[in-house]
Amino acid sequence: MAEKLFSKEEKQQIVAAIKAAELQTSGEIQVHLESHCKGDVLDRAADVFAMLKMHKTKLRNGVLFYLAVEDHKFAVLGDGGINAVVPKGFWDGIKEEMVKHFKEGKFAQGLVTGIQMSGKALKEHFPYDADTDENELSDEISFG
After folding, report:
1. How far apart are CA 139 and CA 102, in angstroms?
2. How many CA atoms lie within 13 A of 41 on its CB side?
3. Domain count, the chain
4. How far is residue 104 CA from its own chain's centroid?
5. Which end of the chain is more exposed for a tag (fewer CB within 10 A), N or C?
6. How, if at all, do strands 28-34 and 142-143 pair?
7. How far apart are the first and last CA of the chain?
8. How do beta strands 73-78 and 142-143 pair?
9. 14-40 confidence digits (pLDDT tens)
10. What pLDDT is stored for residue 47 in this prediction?
11. Phi, psi at residue 28, to the nearest 5°?
12. 93/89 Cα distance (integer angstroms)
């Protein structure tokens, strides 16, 4: 079950990583877990991205970390605003670092690492502005 993957403390660590990353960037980061993903993981992540209304951010700079726990699939998906300015293969480096933790069964640490890396990278293109930034999307982990 996706809901049981993380302890209460691990969930708090992940949410804290999202909040900290979003203090560096106007980008919005969300984590969504499901037990199963039928078909292509990127297609499912895109469906979840739309379901969570992540494409509605002002600068189109949302990032989704999607995990299908039972099927051992995951995706990191950025919106068009991000993908227009980052180099090709940008998400691959982040995913590679996450996989190192996942292979050791450290799923929370893998997510925290990916979130931190995304926050730092997004800061370059979408810096945080205390006067204009607002938290457009929930920082809580969602489950499907």
Report:
1. 22
2. 19
3. 1
4. 20
5. N
6. parallel
7. 10
8. unpaired
9. 999 999 999 999 999 999 999 999 999
10. 96
11. -115, 130
12. 7
Please report the DSSP string for the chain in residue order: -GGGSS-HHHHHHHHHHHHHHHTTBS-EEEEEEES---S-HHHHHHHHHHHTTGGGSTTS-EEEEEEETTTTEEEEEE-HHHHTTSPTTHHHHHHHHHHHHHHTT-HHHHHHHHHHHHHHHHHHHSB--TTT----S--S-EE-
User: Which CATH number goes with the domain that contains 84?
Assistant: 3.10.310.50
Q: Where in the sequence is the domain holding 97, given as residue range(s)?
A: 2-143
Task: Give tens-digit pLDDT for 104-113.
Answer: 999 999 999 9
What are the beta bridge partners of residue 142?
32
Q: What is d(CA 120, CA 32) in angstroms, rounded to the nearest whole number?
A: 21
> Is-contact 6 17, C-beta < 8 A?
no
